[in-house]
Fold:
Amino acid sequence: MNYAEFKNILEIREENLYRDVYLENQDAIRIKKEATAVKNFEKIFNSVFEITYEKGFQAMTMRDLSCHTKLSLGALYGYFSGKEELLAIIHKQGNSMIRKIFGQFYDPQANPVEQLRTLIKAHMFLSESARPWFYFTFMEARNLTPTGREAVLSMEEYTENMLLEILEAGETEGIFIKRDHVMTASLIKAMQQDWYLKRWKYKKRGITVDTYTEYLIDFTISFISL
Amino acid sequence: MNYAEFKNILEIREENLYRDVYLENQDAIRIKKEATAVKNFEKIFNSVFEITYEKGFQAMTMRDLSCHTKLSLGALYGYFSGKEELLAIIHKQGNSMIRKIFGQFYDPQANPVEQLRTLIKAHMFLSESARPWFYFTFMEARNLTPTGREAVLSMEEYTENMLLEILEAGETEGIFIKRDHVMTASLIKAMQQDWYLKRWKYKKRGITVDTYTEYLIDFTISFISL
DNA sequence: GTCTATACACAGATAGAC
DNA sequence: GTCTATCTGTGTATAGAC
Structure:
């Protein structure tokens, strides 16, 4: 599987994603027509990602967002009750999307090496196709309420644990060297995250997500293989 | 060399650091007595790091800083002309400190394996002893002026290039496998950064900087060694 | 649903007494 | 050098017309 194939498999379309946002917050928002809401949520989210990438969420003013979305200040408040809620909605939606898609790529039948490859790829390709979301989650987690913050940390542990289980299974089956798998899993995650945190660097160098992913997998496998 | 030994070698004392801040900004600040300035700069910097770790620099108000340092608003403005300048001073000082100390640990005589070990350790231990600074630089780079931002990126490239040169030398000498050294260097950096970005995680697990560093070195060496 | 105009709070920054 | 009191700008959020 490469990135292009991944995107084909991915059945979740952007549009459905914003429909979810609308449906899950239906009581909190004033807008009643689904089509309008979906269209504008997409605009709003993308604008937030773009502005926030430049200066961070706190520094983004509602007026910035208004200019960027070409919706007036008053109109914006039809879609969420305040800036803080907007942040929460974005995070929540991102979280649930990521969990949903990860599930699709877990195959307990495959051998550990294949499982590891698939999991690393799934994470890399997902973070590529929803990069603004991943970047945002990482950088803006601090601004969340304690509950929201915990959700982010628990996501980190959740994905790391999937790696950990595979590594342990591999050792048990005698395929992988005995190592400190907790450390290995942490380091893999660190390298995965670098891809979306340093977008500018890899873009400048013309490194694609496919190249990066293969290299990361080689790096890892060479360390744990007998 | 382990972390304890590193700290002994490190000749730069905290106090000297804040003296530098005072001396380099002497014309811009109202305070004339060195002792007072040094003492309060230390308080101010540490407060900024602490508050910012929780909510980010933008979200930190001057009143927050005033409470935390136990200096009044008016007094604070004796030490810097405004919030933006404060940010710039912190970044600038961090940058120059890091470059200065890195220089100390570069030994072109040693063989590539030793050079690599030393360089990775120097970076890890430095980032540990000045962790707030590293974390701050990473997370708040976005808020800098374009010039300041470039300084951060150039630091990233500077340290990465040192790794790169060692890897290439090692290949030339026939000690390391032929690989995409640019990619390897990037991944090493990614793993180094994870240490100070995810402090909470490693602390919770009781992983020390020495353990982490040794593991990272093993990981790397096993990939590039013949 | 979207707009403009505006209320209100709060942040950054300064003045001037001590 | 440090304080308190205060000015001024700007940001979030709402009211009410269209």
Residues 30-33, 36, 71-75, 78 of chain B lie near DNA strand D (CB under 10 Å from a C1').
